[in-house]
# Entry
Amino acid sequence: MSDKTDIAKKAGTEVQPALKQAEPVIRPDVDIFEDDGGITLYADMPGISKDRLNVKVEGDTLTIEGDAEIPMPEGMEPLYA
# Structure
């Protein structure tokens, strides 16, 4: 895991200035299976509940986003999460 955002760039395109200040991201392991019935995708995203998951398709790009919520007892503060 890194505290820097991993920005993928297609050949011949420039990274937009707004993207350089994006929040850090984690890219989970993903398994993809295709058969006669369609495509099945399994993403390893522990701590992400269905209501905090956002899946969208734009053109030929699939984006899966989720916000992890770590419950903390009152008065406690995480040092590393």
